[in-house]
Design a protein that fits this description.
Strands 1, 2, 3, 4, 5 and 6 form a six-stranded antiparallel beta sheet that branches. This protein has one domain: Thiol Ester Dehydrase, Chain A, CATH 3.10.129. With 131 residues, it is of the alpha+beta class. The protein contains two helices and six strands, in the order E-H-E-E-E-E-E-H.
């Protein structure tokens, strides 16, 4: 799994218990999944269709640095299925896992659009294709 984004847990990210608010973490995961999908599918019209059970395994406190990892599970006709792990950057303790996130590629009309992708592509590889 590749960890793309790091977040610093600040006071405004905390719940009443003084730990990272789950809703804030889910927003970070949703944004990371969207950004990853937009880059993979080369389309900025991508939406979240489904997020499976979220497994909270540990907590993060103010000042912790968390990193968000995304991995592709499957390329569908108009979708991209991902899994996610969030961990503490310093301790490597897993904070949360999400086994399935389904993102859907949309056309200009807002309806699912086949993307034609079958494998993970890296920007460095795409740059070599341009002339």
């Amino acid at each position: 799994m590749r960890f793309h984004t790091r977040k610093w847990v600040k006071p405004e990210d905390l719940n009443a218990n003084g730990t990272l608010f789950g809703g804030r973490l889910l927003a970070w995961i949703d944004e990371e999944a969207a950004l990853y999908s937009i880059i993979q599918l080369e389309n900025n019209k991508v939406v979240t269709k489904y997020m499976s059970e979220i497994n909270f395994m540990s907590f993060a406190s103010q000042g912790d640095i968390v990193e968000i990892g995304i991995e592709v599970i499957n390329f569908g006709k108009s979708s991209l299925t991902l899994k996610c792990e969030v961990r503490n950057k310093m301790t490597r303790n897993t904070i949360v896992t999400v086994d399935t996130i389904i993102m859907v590629n949309l056309g200009a009309d807002g309806k699912p659009l086949p993307h034609g992708k079958t494998k993970v592509e890296y920007v460095k590889d795409r740059l070599g294709q341009q002339t």
